[in-house]
Amino acid sequence: MQQQVAAITLGIADLGRSRRFYTNGFGWNPVFENSEVVFYQMNGFVLGTWQATALERDMMRSGWSRPGAFALAHNVRSRDDVVSTIERLAANGGHILRPADEPPHGGFRGYIADPDAHAWEIAWNPAWPIDDNGHVTFRA
Q1: Long-range contacts of the stretch 89-97 (C-beta < 8 A, 24+)
Q2: Mean pLDDT across the chain, nearest whole number?
Q3: pLDDT digits over 76-97, tens only?
């Protein structure tokens, strides 16, 4: 099976509030939107923000209550970009979970939650270069 992710979809409570966080905070442009969902074309996959009630109706017919815990990551090109990105996201409805610091494995990172409590790690790691298309490469 090919190693790839086609889409990540986040359940959200308020489409306008979520759109502001992603468009004004990250500066991303939607490629499609309607009254329930906004899709953003990413570097190799699509990110969707979908009204939680509609998403849960679509995916959880087996009695599960919610999926497990996770964090998404957005890598930036420089150490200084970590703090400025977290500040911009906080100004657009995000909630800082952990201020930026140096983890034991290297680099510099902090955590922020979007308005619907989805955790985002904002990270810079000199061992994970970002190409011109925004693709991150894992290097030990």
Answers
A1: 89/21, 89/25, 89/26, 89/114, 89/120, 89/122, 91/25, 92/20, 92/21, 92/24, 92/25, 93/17, 93/20, 93/21, 93/25, 94/21, 94/25, 94/120
A2: 89
A3: 999 999 999 999 999 999 999 9
Is residue 9 within 8 Å of residue 32, measured between CB atoms?
no
HSE toward the beta carbon, residue 53, CA cutoff 13 A: 5
- Tell me the β-bridge partners of 48: 9, 39
Give the domains, in start order, of the chain with CATH numbers: 7-60+70-124 (3.10.180.10)
